[in-house]
Amino acid sequence: MGRITLDKVRKAFGDVEVIPPLDLTIEDGEFVVFVGPSGCGKSTLLRLIAGLEDVSDGQIRIDRQDATNLPPAKRGLAMVFQSYALYPHMSVRKNIAFPMKMAGLSQEEQERRIEAAAKALNLTDYLDRKPGQLSGGQRQRVAIGRAIVREPAAFLFDEPLSNLDAALRVGMRLEISELHKRLATTMVYVTHDQVEAMTMADKIVVLRAGHIEQVGSPLELYNTPRNVFVAGFIGSPK
Ligand code: ADP
Ligand code: MG
């Protein structure tokens, strides 16, 4: 569970082609990072996978299923946003429970998953607080908790740490990496931060103006960047 295949996926907004036809395979359990400068199409690509945008052409498969025309809720993926997107009037517990309630899970199963997620994310003592009473890092953990309880085939992260200060970012980076190890679930992670890409990824996808400049492990990109753009982005001289 959790293999994502893009087959000639293209996206245009009106006359503007933001993603020219693009092929990409994300293996089950892989931690894949999309990196590239602002405006290169990272969020658009993630939103296409999530189903928050419709493709203009091409096909998206999730595991063996053609997901191209599936609504977001039917794709089995969970997206974590930079803005957290928590409900301010609901407690942490209710925020985390919300997607399970929508999915009609039993109260008992909801409780079980909330406890497990809270424990994994160090939120046990904060379940009765409102988002406004939490730090930025704690809010981001709640957003991740709300994704975990859905037991998705893959997690999609769009710059989840860019609202946090530098020290907190380092800690959360480690937490997300550990979560990935523990859950062994596919994670697709968008960032414009090269250090995040280098330290977290199994596979880095370097994007430029909507196309893939290079795909490889952090080491491959560092040692054998295909061109000056990749070298500049990953930080090794060429
Ligand atoms: P990134 O996440 O890499 O910064 P985006 O995927 O947000 O880049 O945007 C890629 C390009 O697509 C940008 O030029 C942006 O202006 C354009 N774009 C994104 N969303 C829309 C939209 N809904 N309508 C028109 N243009 C859009
Ligand atoms: Mg973006």
Could you explain how this protein is built, in words?
With 238 residues, the chain is of the alpha/beta class. Helices cover 36% and strands 26% of the residues. It contains 8 helices and 10 strands. Strand 4 (57-62) and strand 5 form a beta hairpin. Helix 2 crosses helix 3 (107-120), helix 2 (92-102) runs parallel beside helix 4 and helix 3 crosses helix 4 (136-148). The radius of gyration is 18 Å and the shape is globular. Magnesium ion is lined by residues 42-43. One of its GO terms (cellular component) is ATP-binding cassette (ABC) transporter complex, substrate-binding subunit-containing. One of its GO terms (molecular function) is ABC-type maltose transporter activity. Keywords: ATP-binding, Nucleotide-binding, Transport.
Major sheet details: 6 strands, mixed
What is the count of DSSP helices, taking H or I runs of 4+ residues?
8
Write out the distinct hetero groups bound to the structure: adenosine-5'-diphosphate, magnesium ion
User: What is the C-alpha radius of gyration, as a whole number of Å?
Assistant: 18 Å
Count of β-strands: 10
Give the CA-based shape.
globular
Overview in brief:
The protein contains 8 helices and 10 strands.
Task: Present the secondary structure layout.
Layout: E1 4-13, E2 16-26, E3 31-35, H1 42-50, E4 57-62, E5 65-66, E6 77-81, H2 92-102, H3 107-120, H4 136-148, E7 154-158, H5 166-183, E8 186-191, H6 194-200, E9 203-208, E10 211-216, H7 218-223, H8 228-234
Parallel strand pairs: 3-8, 3-9, 6-7, 7-8
Antiparallel strand pairs: 1-2, 1-4, 4-5, 9-10
Bound molecules: adenosine-5'-diphosphate and magnesium ion.
